[in-house]
Design goal:
It is built from 15 helices and 15 strands. It is of the alpha/beta class. It folds into two domains: 277 residues, Rossmann fold, CATH 3.40.50; 76 residues, Arc Repressor Mutant, subunit A (Orthogonal Bundle). α5 links the parallel β2 and β3. α2 runs antiparallel to α12 and α9 packs across α10. The longest helix has 21 residues. The protein is globular, with a radius of gyration of 22 Å.
Length: 379
């Protein structure tokens, strides 16, 4: 597959690039607002690190992710005072372009920490030279052109920090092609390991129509072993036949970050079925059938099975269960529990008759207690 040069890539921002930038900058701003709260962060400091930052703007005038973030940081006092920003691109011209545009922003001198700029290949040594405390909350964005940089050792270094999150862009078709390409063998081994590459090749033969899923499964396991237990992929289907898929991959240590990113990705999804987001962006004609018409019954039955014989609050049910799925968000759980209550499959305290209604819908707050029936033997 031919490589896209950075010069051509930054000529005009594509629709999926706008969506990707929107997801990342909305997450960074929300995340920073949380981790900089005094009750969580006595030092009052957090860091946003973009190791493949690119220029300030595309040639068509669209603003890049770093520029969007800095503009918004300038609008909020807590972020101006506490967020340190590191921008790196191995192309000096890209870095200089970004530095000039950020430097020209109104009120840029109001930042407590001036943005830090570097121009070199992303590496563990570069991260080390930033000299950030392992206690400082950190978010890393890796919007690289290739995929060989995302090695387990690189991710492990990032997640050696106590509080951290990471997102990277994966051009999945390139990885799939490289699995069986002898010229890519050494690079693939550096990412997946020799046994991992052999496993990929073997699974590709056994399940030739599931290559994308196989790659994501292996990658998820690798990231977990590197210290990132929460893995959330957001696919971009960007060709006429929707066959070319690229992914924004989010990694986290803490379930609250996973929950936050899931909400943001849900809002950026092209389609929702039964109120459930497809968790992906689709360009071109939509092919229905990615979900059943109503995916809620699956969640309802899973809740009955998972929590059989137990009494828990709605909030506890959500916190314990949603991390097992990249699909459902809080409002989906509330709707599933309303449906189960309506057909007397569960008991809620207070009951629906005792709870308020809004816009004709009975509320299901996170404090409501839910009692699930015991499962019958053999069921």
């Amino acid at each position: 597959m031919p490589r896209v040069s950075s010069k051509k890539f930054f000529a005009e921002q594509s629709a999926h690039s706008r969506v990707k930038a929107g997801i990342v900058y909305r997450y960074v701003l929300a995340w920073a607002g949380i981790v900089l709260a005094p009750r969580f962060n006595q030092a009052g400091e957090a860091a946003y690190v973009d190791l493949f930052s690119g220029p300030g703007s595309y040639e068509d005038g669209s603003r890049s992710t770093p520029l969007l973030i800095v503009e918004q940081v300038l609008q909020k006092a807590s972020l101006r005072e506490g967020l340190r920003m590191f921008f790196n691109d191995k192309s000096p011209s890209m870095t200089n372009s970004l530095k000039q545009e950020i430097g020209a922003l109104r009120d840029i001198k109001n930042l407590r920490y001036a943005p830090h700029y570097t121009s070199e290949a992303a590496s563990i040594a570069l991260i080390d030279r930033f000299s950030l405390s392992r206690e400082t909350p950190q978010f890393y964005f890796l919007d690289q052109f290739g995929w060989s940089e995302i090695t387990p050792s690189f991710i492990q270094r990032i997640f050696s920090n106590r509080r951290c999150d990471c997102a990277f862009f994966l051009r999945t078709p390139r990885v799939i092609a490289a699995v069986t390409n002898p010229r890519s063998e050494s690079t693939m081994i550096s990412v997946f390991g020799e046994n991992g590459l052999e496993s990929l090749q073997r699974d590709f033969k056994l399940r030739p129509r599931e290559k994308e899923g196989i790659v994501l499964e292996k990658l998820k396991d690798l990231m977990a072993s590197a210290g990132a237990p929460y893995f959330l992929p957001f696919p971009f289907r960007i060709t006429a036949d929707l066959s070319s898929r690229q992914h924004l991959i989010y990694l986290a240590k803490h379930p609250k970050g996973f929950e936050l990113m899931k909400d943001i990705m849900a809002g950026s999804s092209t389609l929702h079925y039964g109120g459930v987001p497809t968790m992906g962006y689709i360009t071109g004609p939509v092919q229905h059938g990615l979900f059943t018409v109503d995916p809620m019954p699956e969640l309802e039955e899973d809740l009955l099975r998972t929590f059989a014989g137990r009494t828990l609050s709605v909030g506890t049910i959500f916190n314990q269960h949603h991390v097992t799925s990249d699909r459902y968000i809080l409002k989906n759980y509330q709707e599933a529990l309303r449906r189960l209550e309506a057909r007397t499959a569960i008991h809620a305290t207070p009951s629906s008759e005792e709870r308020q209604s809004r816009n004709g819908i009975v509320t299901m707050s996170e404090t409501v207690d839910i009692t699930f029936p015991k499962r019958q033997e053999g069921v």
